[in-house]
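Internal QA ticket QA-208
Title: Verify multi-chain structure generation after dependency bump
Assignee: T.L.

Test input:
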Amino acid sequence: MARLSLGIDCGSTTTKGALFDGETVVKTILLPTAARPRERMGQIYDAMYSSEVEYVVTTGYGRELLPQAHKRVTEITCHAKGAAYLCPGIAGVVDIGGQDSKAILLDRDGNVADFVMNDKCAAGTGRFVEMMGRILDCPLDEIDAFTKDAKPVDITSMCTVFAESEIISLLAQGRARGDIALGVIRSICQRTALFAQKLRPEGDLFFSGGLARFEVFRKTLESYIDWPVHTHPRSQMAGAIGAAIIGWQKIR
Amino acid sequence: MNRELIKDLPAVFEEFNEQRKKSFVTAMEMKQKGVPFVGVFCTYLPQELPMAMGAAVVGLCSMSGETIPEAEKDLPRNLCPLVKSSYGFAKTDKCPFFYFSDLIVGETTCDGKKKMYEMLGEFKPVYVMELPNSQSPEALELWKKEVIKFKEKLESHFGVTITDEDVRKAIKLKNEERQALKDFYSLMKLNPAPMLGGDMYKVLYGSTFKFDKEALIQEVKALTQKIKDTYDDGTPDCPKQKFAGRPRIMVTGSPIGGASEKVIKCLEDNGAQVVVFENCSGAKSVDEMVDEQNPDIYDALARRYLNIGCSCMTPDHNRFKLMDRLIDEYQVDAVVEVVLQACHTYNVESFLIKRFVTEEKKKPYIALETDYSTSDAGQISTRLAAFLEML
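Actual output:
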């Protein structure tokens, strides 16, 4: 019988689960959180739990909501663990989440050495991108194609509410939607890069969170940072994977 | 023996916690008997002078967000919550101590406060001492003059004479109070520390609202003894066992009162222990004694008070010196700095403090910017929990 650990990351936008057997991530699940964090965590737990699961770790803003969890760990520690697993040798992590963004500095052993968080407002978070997608009528999944060959427009408002009216006036001026979208992406990446560089990372960075799926974000972020920026097909799962790894360390 | 000795420690801590409210009645009775009240804001105020004329000294720094909306009718929103809240309590007369204060004394510390005092002066009897921005010999000279001017202000305002002998007695009494409080919080040098930082804070804060200093000194001494006696009684529930293995935290930065729940409680609920407060109402205001041997009492007072490390000083060497010593003495594992929103001097200085703590003292450091609201309680808790996971 296999021995497994389960990590569940309940974020503001999506809830993720990962099963780990000590070497590989054997299964992952992702569901929209949609204002029901307790229900989503329960669903993921029910779908992934088996008698083989020996330890359950929860993380993310809903981490307190699953009574079956053996341990609750903050998303900072879990993202760091998950990122160091997906991309060994990195010096830091940049995560753009649904309602906050964070940068984490790792020591040589992959432990958290320092971190900064932007959690005061929606500026530079996934919310900002959702707002843009809605106004520009661009589904997030098509963002790479949508911004291909675009010439970015300067977006000066950092506040999500003000940026919305800025985008509307740019549309009224007849600017191309792709150009505006790339402008918004640049403003988010520039802000995130400035913020990450407060930690003065020295080495390659890992980009996690939902937006890491899109090459345009990775490339733009990298253009503002002095170090290469990597992603992984499972970037969005980094928190859940990290939680599962922490769980594994407990059973071992 | 002192009645405090027969009480349980949690009851004693709660009593200190409730002290501010309890003192409302005491203060009223004292007022009726004609005892003058001097309301103060800051650690820099030489309390010995009002004490010397028999006045009660009471802290007016407000710790609740309750009156901030009222204050924001006059003051900008993006201002320090302590400044806004204090002004709000004065304006609405919701704080009995503002109401009882015959004279309110401020100092030219931060920009927010000194401008607020101008406005406060329009409806309250306010006197402002000119606190220098540095600790140079010239600054000391100015501050000494200000200390003497303050004594003269008290004399003319209350129609009393303050003799050198009165001041000397007050210096001695205040030093005894400091020593008692210092002996109390120095218990936290024990490893494991003998009480939660939250409880220690209740005593330090509550003690500022005990007007009978002689009684306070006895109470604090008895409490210190009681904690020593119960520290290691061999049971698994004694502090020495109960608090073993907790990371030892220093709290520094802006005055912490209004954010204490969010920060101290959160740290301790997540398994750490605050072993020393460097802030106002912590070591900063208690650590140094007034030199009783100095024949010039005003020089002694001026030196002692000007020496306090605070980000309103430039440069602020004394804060670094005190932190340096406290980090070693209290075997601190990590430093948490609390900066009140829009507190520019502490906010800017946090860069230098971080560098000092992480590079020279080689300890982890985190800074939190917060206010008196609960809107960021979730975020603060995540940050602090992540910080503790990092240790």
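Spot checks passed. Residues 1-5 of chain B have pLDDT under 50 and may be disordered.
Status: verified.
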